[in-house]
Amino acid sequence: MSNPNPDSMGEGMDSFAALFEQSITEGDFGNEGEIVQGTIVAIGRDHVVVDIGGKSEGSIPLREFTDAGGPPINVGDTIDVYIESRENDDGLVTLSKEKADKMKVWDEISAACEADELIEGTISQRVKGGLSVTIRGGVKAFLPGSQVDLRPIRNLDKLIGQTYRFKVIKFNKKRGNIVLSRRVLLERERDEMKQKTLETLTEGMVVKGVIKNITEYGAFVDLGGIDGLLHITDMSWGRVNHPNEVFQVGDEVTVKVLKYNAETERVSLGLKQTQEDPWNHAEEAYPAGKKVRGKVMSITDYGAFVELEPGVEGLIHVSEMSWTKKVKHPSKLLEVGQDIECQVLEVDARAKRISLGLKQLEPDPWMLFTEKYNPGDKIGGKVRSITDYGVFVGIEEGVDGMVHRSDLSWSVRVNNPADLYHKGDDVEAIILSINHDEKKVSLGIKQLWDDPWPSMITEFPLGRVYEDADVVSTCEYGVFVRLREGVEALIPSNDVEETEDKPIKRGDKVRCEITSVDGVDRRVFASMKNIGAERPAGYTPKESGPKPAGTLGDLIKEKLAGKLELK
Known about the structure:
This protein has eight helices and 30 strands. It is mainly beta and about 575 residues long. It folds into six domains: about 35-115, CATH 2.40.50.140; about 115-185, CATH 2.40.50.140; about 200-275, CATH 2.40.50.140; about 280-360, CATH 2.40.50.140; about 365-450, CATH 2.40.50.140; about 455-560, CATH 2.40.50.140.
C-alpha cells in the first residue's frame, strides 16, 4: 500500500477549505438581509422550523403566522422568509416571516407609487393630525386630516374601521414613512363626474342629488361633481323656517333644474317644482263661506296667517276677529302654533290670497239688533262711555248707540254730558235713526218727553222783565242767560249793555226783557237796552256778528264743529 502524495493531500485540503468558506459566506440559502423561499418541515408549540436549502434550517416564532391572520399553515407549505442571521447560538439560521411580508409590501407600495396606482387600506385609529391606516402586511401609513375628504370632517372617529382606496403622496422606505391621500382620489372622481354632469345638464330637467351642506338660506346639493343651490323658498310650497327642518346632510333628493349657467357653472334647484302647486285647486278646495281648520303660522300687527295646508295660507285680518271686541293686537286672541277654526271670506288664487274670518263663526250682533229694533222704539241700556259731544249707551252685546248732547234735554243747554251721566248708569232712550251702512244708532233721551217749546210763548210773554237773570255763558254774538231752570235766552251783542271797564262774564246777574220767543226755531231772545219801551209789532232782535242758525242744540253742535267758541 503506497502512502498518499503529500502534495496532492495539501491541494485537496485547500479545495475543501475554499468550498466550506464559500458555503459559509454565500451559502446556498442566501445572505443576511435577503428574502428566500423555504419549506415548513416542522410546527412546534411556539416555533415553526423552515428548511431554506443548503441543509440549513431556521426557526420562526409561531405568533408571526397567527398574528398575521392568514390561512392555517401545514408541514410542506412553501413560504417567503427573511434571513436575519446565518447562524445563532444553536447553530440555526434566524428567520422572520413578518419582516419578509413587510419587505414585500414595501416593494409593492414602492411600485404602486412609481406607477401612480392606488392601494387599499383600513383606517385603524385616530392619531395626532389625522388617521392611521393599515395596509397590506400590517404596514402603517399616515392619512392627514386635510386629505381625508373633499371637505373637513369634524368627527374622524366615525371613519375608524372603514376600508378605502388611497393614493400614496409621500414614500420613504428607509424611514418607514408612508403618507396617503383620499382627497386626491375624490377630486379626480369629482372632476370626471363633473364633466359628465355638465355635458347632460339642462334647465327644466329633473335630477337626483345628495344634500352636501345646509345653510340658513338653503342647501347645497351634489349633482355629481357639481353643486347646485336649493334655496329655502324653493324647498316647499309651505312655509320653511330653516332648511334643517326639511333636510339633513347626506339625504338623497329629487330636484328640478330651475336655472343653469354653463359659464359660471351655477345651478339653481327647486324641490317644490317637482310637485303640484296647491294653489291650483285652492278655489275649489276653499270656497267662500266654507268653515276650515288651520294652524296659526305667524302674527302681525294687522292680522294672523293661518296655514290651511302646506303651501296655502290665509289671513285673518284684525277687523275680522271679533264682532264685539276692539282687538288692539291679534296676539290678544291668538298665538303661533294654535289650531283654530275659521271661515273663508274670499279667495284669489291668482294672487295667492285667502281672506279668513273668525268672528263669522258667531251671529252678527248688528243683524240681531236690526231684526229686533226699529226707529221710534224705546230701549234700555247702560252708559258705556261719555265724551264731550255725547253719551254712548250699550243696547245689545256688540251694539252701542249714541245720544248727542243736543238730544239730552229740550230746554237745558248741556255743555258737559258728564255733568248729567256717569259710566254704568242705567238709562232709557228712543231710537232716532239706524244707519245700516255705517252700523250706527242715534238715540235721544229728551224724546222720552213732550216738547215743551209750544208752551214757551205763553210762559215767557213779550216785555216780561227779569231783574236778576244769571249769565251762563258769553260768545262773540251775545250772552246766554238763564230765565229759569231749563230755560235760557240769548241777548244779542247789540242788545248787551256793558262797559269796557266792566265786561259781562259768566256768573254775573243782569236785568233783561223778553223781546222774542220763536217756537219754530226754538229761540228765546232778550235785551238789556230800552227795557219797558214799546216795540213795534213783529219786532225781531237784530243779531250782530255771526248769526247763530237753528236751535240752541244747533248752536252747541256748531261749537263742537269749531264754528263757535262759547265762553
